[in-house]
Amino acid sequence: MGDRKQARAARDEEFRSFLVGRWPRLMRTALLLTGEQHAAEDLVKGAQASWFVALAPGGVGYQSADVTT
Q1: pLDDT per residue over 30-58, tens digit each?
Q2: Of 10, 26, 43, 53, which shows the fewest CB atoms inside 10 Å?
Q3: 59 Cβ partners below 8 Å, 6+ apart?
Q4: Does 67 reside within a domain?
Protein backbone atom coordinates (compact mmCIF):
# COMPACT_ATOMS: atom_id res chain seq x y z
CA MET A 1 0.00 0.00 0.00
CA GLY A 2 2.88 2.36 0.68
CA ASP A 3 4.00 2.15 -2.93
CA ARG A 4 0.55 3.18 -4.15
CA LYS A 5 0.49 6.17 -1.83
CA GLN A 6 3.96 7.21 -2.93
CA ALA A 7 3.05 6.80 -6.59
CA ARG A 8 -0.10 8.85 -6.13
CA ALA A 9 1.79 11.55 -4.22
CA ALA A 10 4.41 11.69 -6.98
CA ARG A 11 1.70 11.91 -9.66
CA ASP A 12 -0.12 14.63 -7.75
CA GLU A 13 3.08 16.64 -7.32
CA GLU A 14 3.95 16.26 -11.01
CA PHE A 15 0.47 17.45 -11.98
CA ARG A 16 0.68 20.39 -9.57
CA SER A 17 4.08 21.40 -10.96
CA PHE A 18 2.75 21.18 -14.51
CA LEU A 19 -0.15 23.49 -13.71
CA VAL A 20 1.90 25.99 -11.72
CA GLY A 21 4.35 26.30 -14.60
CA ARG A 22 1.62 26.81 -17.18
CA TRP A 23 -0.93 28.78 -15.16
CA PRO A 24 -0.10 32.20 -16.70
CA ARG A 25 -0.40 30.90 -20.26
CA LEU A 26 -3.60 28.99 -19.47
CA MET A 27 -5.10 32.08 -17.85
CA ARG A 28 -4.17 34.33 -20.80
CA THR A 29 -5.78 31.91 -23.23
CA ALA A 30 -8.89 31.52 -21.07
CA LEU A 31 -9.15 35.30 -20.68
CA LEU A 32 -9.05 35.71 -24.45
CA LEU A 33 -11.82 33.12 -24.77
CA THR A 34 -14.08 34.46 -22.03
CA GLY A 35 -13.25 38.16 -21.78
CA GLU A 36 -13.63 38.10 -17.97
CA GLN A 37 -11.09 37.30 -15.25
CA HIS A 38 -13.49 35.27 -13.07
CA ALA A 39 -14.86 33.30 -16.00
CA ALA A 40 -11.31 32.58 -17.15
CA GLU A 41 -10.37 31.25 -13.70
CA ASP A 42 -13.47 29.07 -13.66
CA LEU A 43 -12.62 27.73 -17.10
CA VAL A 44 -9.03 26.85 -16.18
CA LYS A 45 -10.03 25.28 -12.86
CA GLY A 46 -12.74 23.22 -14.54
CA ALA A 47 -10.29 22.00 -17.16
CA GLN A 48 -7.77 21.26 -14.42
CA ALA A 49 -10.28 19.05 -12.61
CA SER A 50 -11.15 17.23 -15.84
CA TRP A 51 -7.48 16.60 -16.65
CA PHE A 52 -6.80 15.29 -13.16
CA VAL A 53 -9.68 12.82 -13.37
CA ALA A 54 -8.68 11.72 -16.88
CA LEU A 55 -5.10 11.05 -15.77
CA ALA A 56 -6.06 9.19 -12.60
CA PRO A 57 -5.69 5.40 -12.51
CA GLY A 58 -8.76 4.04 -14.29
CA GLY A 59 -9.40 7.42 -15.92
CA VAL A 60 -9.79 8.00 -19.63
CA GLY A 61 -6.17 9.00 -20.23
CA TYR A 62 -4.59 6.42 -17.96
CA GLN A 63 -2.68 3.64 -19.65
CA SER A 64 -2.32 0.27 -18.00
CA ALA A 65 -1.63 -3.25 -19.09
CA ASP A 66 -3.12 -6.41 -17.67
CA VAL A 67 -0.87 -9.42 -17.80
CA THR A 68 -2.29 -12.92 -17.45
CA THR A 69 -0.15 -15.93 -16.85
Answers
A1: 999 999 999 999 999 999 888 878 777 76
A2: 10
A3: 53
A4: no
CA 15 vs CA 3, 35, 39, 44, 51: distances in Å: 18, 27, 22, 14, 9
Examine residue 24 and state whether it is found in any structural domain, yes or no. yes
Task: Assess contact for 23 and 44: CB atoms under 8 A.
Answer: yes
- Count of structural domains within the chain: 1
First-to-last C-alpha distance (Å) of the chain: 23
Residues making up the chain, counted from first to last: 69
User: What residues make up the domain containing 19?
Assistant: 2-55
48 CB-near residues (< 8 Å, 6+ apart): 19
Report field, pTM of the whole predicted structure over 0.70: no
Q: What phi and psi values does residue 61 have, to the nearest 5 degrees?
A: -90, 5
